[in-house]
Amino acid sequence: IPTSSDNSVLSNWCILQRQSYKKGKLSQERVNKLEDISFIWNPEEENWNYFYQLLSVFYNKEGHSSPTQKDSSLGRWCSNQRQNYKNNKLSKDKIDLLENIEFVWNLIDYQWNKSYKMLEKFYINEGHSHPAQGKSSLGEWCSKQRQNYKKGKLSKEKIDLLENIEFIWEF
């Protein structure tokens, strides 16, 4: 897919072909010739499909669909999909495709639930829900939940979940 940084003349020509095609002003002969060389009529859609395929491979290999955003074009693409979803700019078909690979729409909730599951497992194994604070990331997470609770920043749902495993608010 030529872009303006590749070759401005070729890029502009491709843009003109796409515009003419959309307006129905491109002869069938030219359409056929362009399709014979696998001309891409919708580069944005092609780009979306390319990254979706990359994410599918990542999901099958890693078991999740949340690559980090740092130093990763795939991670940045995922972040853009979350933003498009939030702004209602993502089609139902694309939402369905992403949900088929367990795409995480809200990373904050996802991380909270992941940490909660770790604490729940700790509770089942140890018989209490207060891991050592300075010695583990789970202990630090618990400390953060206490702080959020004191500041009124925990939802009732999260409070209830924590109380179901006998979470100690004052430690």
Describe this entry's structure for a reader:
- It is a single chain.
- It contains eight helices and no strands.
- The chain has helices at residues 8-22, 28-36, 43-62, 73-86, 92-100, 107-126, 137-150, 156-164.
- The chain is elongated and about 75 Å long.
- The mean pLDDT is 91.
Layout of strands and helices, then pairs:
Layout: H1 8-22, H2 28-36, H3 43-62, H4 73-86, H5 92-100, H6 107-126, H7 137-150, H8 156-164
Question: Compute the gyration radius: what is it?
Answer: 24 Å
Q: What is the terminal-to-terminal distance?
A: 59 Å
Low-confidence stretches: none
Approximate helicity band: 55-70%
Q: How many individual β-strands?
A: 0
Main sheet?
A: none
Arithmetic mean of pLDDT? 91
Structural class: mainly alpha
How many helices does DSSP assign?
A: 8
Order of helices and strands: HHHHHHHH
Shape: elongated
Assess the beta-strand content as a share of residues. Answer: under 5%
Query: What would you call the quaternary organization?
Result: single chain
